[in-house]
Amino acid sequence: MADALIDRLNRTVDALLANGDASAALADAELAPLARLAADLRHCPDPAFKARLRAQLERRTTMIQALEMTQIREGFTTVTPYVRVSEPGLAEFLSTVFGAVETSRTSGPGGGVHREMRVGDSMLMIGEDPTQGVMPIRPAAFHVHVPDVDAAFERAVSAGAESMGAPEDRHYGERAGFVRDRFGNHWYIATWSSNMRPPEGVRTVMPFLHPPEASKYIDFLKAAFGAVEEERHDLPNGLVIHARLRIGNAQIELGEPDPPRPMPSGFYLYVGDADVVYEQAIAAGATSLWAPRDEWYGDRVGAVQDAMGNQWFIAQPA
Amino acid sequence: MATSTDPDDRPLVEAAQADPRRFVELYERYVNRVYAFAARRVGNRAAAEDVTSEVFERALANLRRFEWRGSPFVAWLFRIAANVIADRWKELAHEAFDAPADEAVSYDDDVERRAIVFQLVDRLPDVQRRVIEMRFVEGKSIRDVAEALQRSEGAVKQLQLRALENLRKSMGHHG
Fold first, then answer.
1. CA-CA distance, A193 to A94, in Å (whole number)?
2. DSSP secondary structure letter of residue B134
3. Given CA atoms A278, A283, A288, A293 in this order, what sign does their dihedral have?
4. Partner-chain contact A17 B135, CB within 8 Å
5. What is the three-class DSSP state of B33?
6. Are A221 and A215 in contact (CB under 8 A)?
7. Do B36 and A34 touch (CB under 8 A)?
8. How distant, in Å, are the alpha carbons of A174, B41, B67, B110 from that of B106?
9. Which of A16-20, A282-286, B89-93, B103-107 has the lowest mean pLDDT?
10. By three-state DSSP, how is residue A55 classified?
């Protein structure tokens, strides 16, 4: 007596699972349609995987929502570099070299001065404080696009900056020269080559980070602040030579120097929900400097430090 | 590339563009098709899962750049999937590799049929669905499934047959 369908089917499924072959079943008219379905089911997604991915996407959408601002101060984007110096002079340097305009100056209760500068379409914050305070004074690096790099480079050197490389046509589509100001900040000054169209979202001043183990650091920025890779170039040895990341409506760049040359700095991060972004940053591995609190100047701000040493001031506008 | 089963997804896509939290609804609607597309082109389950994850991550990151140009939303997802797969080949090959052109994002009946099968599995009665998952996803033997469900091997074989017959009937309704 011939086998019942239930057993023929089971043998077919066993054969499929063992070697992916159900061809023997195709000659059996009763079994063939079930065998074809069974062959498709071998590729069925794991429900646990689908649930994990769904949860991951939910976390990211929550982050995107938390980053979004309904109101933002004019001229600002999600990420504003916060440069700390021990004495005045940087604002004048920026005005002389890049035509920066001071849009705000506030004396803090501790005696320091907070300045906000507009450079082209970008904003920078400068904290002048002779004391170290909670934020150590450390130089930062920036990529600045100007109409005439040679002229800007000359102005920078005349204003006391040290040349790190005279302007030259670079292979990546820019004419660029590099200087270090007297506070130690690096300025990678550049003019786009005539045949180069600036990528969408690139602004006049782009913060430029030099994290060791950049690949891991990019993963941190994705987990902590919902960063998205806009561009990335890795070497075969795993070094990230250049990457451009979007955080909210702002972009930052990074490149991994060899040997490592980290220049941790500070960023003011405007978000829609400081508490959610702060928690996400901590969950991604950042260390708390302080939990979100209402500051005297109106913003609700929490602060964290990442493994590279960058400090992020996560601010919800008043 | 559109199929007759494509729902009108424009309102949902526009809702997700305005409020990213609605993106999860798009995920639920298309995860089986993207997974089926990926599984058809890569060799194993882990790679299909990696590609599927990357597709939805990239889609979410770029959702606001998506513009209606006459193609359905799922065509955009398949194009992302083709790019993700090409990127992975590049990584593996460590050499120049031309990414597939849009036309190369071929869509076939196998992908559509499998996506429907995967969707229908979710609608099976619980115990039949568990048998299908344990057999086909986890690769368990009838004996192991019987042990896990505390049923006889004969009962599990019967559930396996009923599940496949139910799927066949439901597929008939999808024409």
1. 23
2. I
3. positive
4. yes
5. helix
6. no
7. no
8. 38, 11, 21, 11
9. B103-107
10. helix
**pLDDT confidence band for A296 (50 / 70 / 90):** confident
Q: How far is CA A22 from CA A17, A28, A51, in A?
A: 9, 11, 30
Contact B30, B77 (CB under 8 A): yes
Share of chain A above pLDDT 70, in %: 98
Q: How far is CA A222 from CA A63, A287, B87, in A?
A: 10, 16, 19
Q: Which residues of B touch A33 (CB under 8 A)?
A: 168
Find the residue in A nearest to B33 (Cα): A45
d(CA A98, CA A89): 14
ipTM for the whole predicted complex goes beyond 0.90:
no
Residue A275 pLDDT exceeds 70: yes
* This model's pTM is above 0.90: no
Residue A10 exposed, middle or buried by CB count within 10 Å (0-12, 13-18, 19+)? buried
- At CB < 8 Å, which residues of chain A contact B? 5-7, 9-10, 13-14, 17, 33-34, 37-38, 40-47, 49-50, 53-54, 56-58, 60-62, 64-65, 228, 236, 246
Which residues, 6+ apart, have CB-to-CB distance to A124 below 8 Å?
A80, A81, A83, A94, A100, A116, A117, A205
pLDDT in tens, A137-152: 788 999 999 999 999 9
Q: Residues with Cβ < 8 Å from A259, sequence gap 6 or more?
A: none
